[in-house]
Here is the input.
Amino acid sequence: MTQKTIEYSPIFHFPVQIYYEDTDFSGVVYHPNFLKYFERAREHVIGADVLNLLWQQQQLGFAVYRTDMLCHDGVEFADIVDVRTRYYFESKYRTVWQQEIWRPNAKKPAVTATIEMVCMNQQRQMAPMPLNLITQLQQQFNQS
Here is the structure.
């Protein structure tokens, strides 16, 4: 059996300030908020303007298909964490995002996730990603 070689993008860094509202009674981030941080980082990689044009001009967007998240360590109020993001193309319909949240000076990530995204049209049917978007994202592979 031949194993598929996966070509990941470079790692993108996105800082997130942890506010009191992000935490539970103990001052530790409430776990669903990690998904928000991952979403913000993915939007930063693609670009809000690109996502908006994609929706307005081609009626295409992205939806989470599958998420696998592990919380290894607590993230606390007042931390400024580094959300590290890389991705690869699974197909013309799907991207897979490997994301990690790192606390300052940590030796390992506090949270890790694999998030699969699919491109969908307004009728909520899978649709191929536009070639110009794929080209733009692939160009990021060569910039690092």
